[in-house]
Design a protein that fits this description.
The protein has four helices and nine strands. The protein is α+β, with helices and mostly antiparallel strands. The strands form three sheets. It has a five-stranded antiparallel beta sheet. It has a two-stranded parallel ribbon with strand order 6-9. Strands 7-8 form a two-stranded antiparallel ribbon.
Length: about 220
Amino acid sequence: MRALCGASDEGALPTAVGSMRSTGIFDGLAALGLSISEEQGGGSPMSAETLSYAIDEHDHLIRVDQGYYRFAEENGWNEAATSLGRSLWDYVAGHEMVKLQRLLVRRIRDGVGDVELPFRCDGPEVRREMDIRIVARPGGRVVLFSARLRAQEERDLPQRLLDPATPRSGEVLEMCGWCDRFKVDAEWIEVEEAARRLGLFNRSELPAVSHGICPDCNEMLLAA
């Protein structure tokens, strides 16, 4: 869930288990698709290469580690200290992302037991490739999420479309909450290509970002 990653809808965290942008508390850390919200940054290189959190049978956050807090601090997410006790789904941006991630958690609880998936947790100045492992404890009541940074690369140019401080117009551009690609002309493409095709480089206001799911990620999550 991507709760701590990427530019997400207002109120969302870092996906896949969140954004931390989304794939969960990471776009809010739930790489299950938690994605970092409009108030959160998501632009700094990560010094914490792993982070983890756990939810109870009601999907409320009951435990986070120091990597979680370190990532939040580095990316300007000031509400991390109050996240315990809140629902994981408060941090997942986009109806389809919430639906898919709820389904995935339910399957893991009901017998799958252990799933590991790749996801993206990008910021305006950095591209991050991560993996999220989701494990149900015996009985399925507690589910553990562990995210690991696999690779990160600084961008040649900052991408203002991913910067929450960028002024927004009335237009809306859809972003995949798991892989951070954008939908332009029915094609899912990287943020740099989206900015080029739409001529966004010299505009003072950029489209607002909404969160959905691309066909590739939808298929991967359903098959997990």
